[in-house]
Predict the 3D structure of the following.
Amino acid sequence: MGIGSTWYRKSLLTVTGMPLVEKLSATSFGKKLASRFIAGETLSEALDEIEKLGKLGIMATLDHLGEGVRDISEAEAYKTQYLTLIEGIAERKASSNVSLKPTQMGLALDPAACYANIREVVKHARRHRNFVRIDMENTPYTQSTIDIVKRLHAEGLTNAGTVLQAYLFRTEKDVRELLQARISLRLVKGAYKESAEVAFQTKAEVMDSFKSMIKQHLDRRAYTAIASHDDEIISWAKAYARSRRIPKTAFEFQMLYGLRMNEQAQLAKEGYRVRCYVPYGSMWYPYFTRRLAEKPANLMLVLKHMF
């Protein structure tokens, strides 16, 4: 990242982390701002949006927002919501899989209860022939998240995968290890504030790491989920796949709800597999602030959407 981008990101994350700012976000004005990136507060609203995406040839992954729960009973409630979510996808015959966060299921409070909650969701998804993506959070939870997915696979629950972040130094090793274990991965740059002790700090380094992750997947003919809005990454992945004669069905581009929707539709029209990450729910603030912090253009999109 450049100096300006780094300053913008750190400043915005600092401001949005203030209790007063978070409180103001809960107003109708704050909710209106967030609606650019959030597909509603209810499951029905989110499924309606997924249906619209399907008509454009775009698949989805549905995320009921929530993280950092303060009591294990909250995690239990989220688990129940996910069981309902999976049934909703099946009933609507929506082209969508599922994403969830380990801290939402209680990882920071009770790792054993967290695993039991996630395992129940994954088993329920398997009954409905669906897939669960265990999202990656910040570095205190990286190894725990990987361990959860490995354990699920060891129990035969292979309809679960996770996410690897290009900006972490450890990711090169994790990619090799998880590819060997045949665990499905979503490849991303990374959206959390991480120190120079564990993560690359320049855009060039992150981009090189990201391309290396994609290349390792495509070279092994492993199904590749490339989550990026960056034209450089998208163009590079297209060209690399063509040069290796890798069919469009062997990988997919993933983007976020509310960002570059026209480009998502165009990629689908070109015959690429496209998946939109569709978040919904009332606990949207942490997710929303990370989206704003990624780059100034996202803040401009929100303001344009508002006015």
Summary: The longest helix spans residues 72-92.
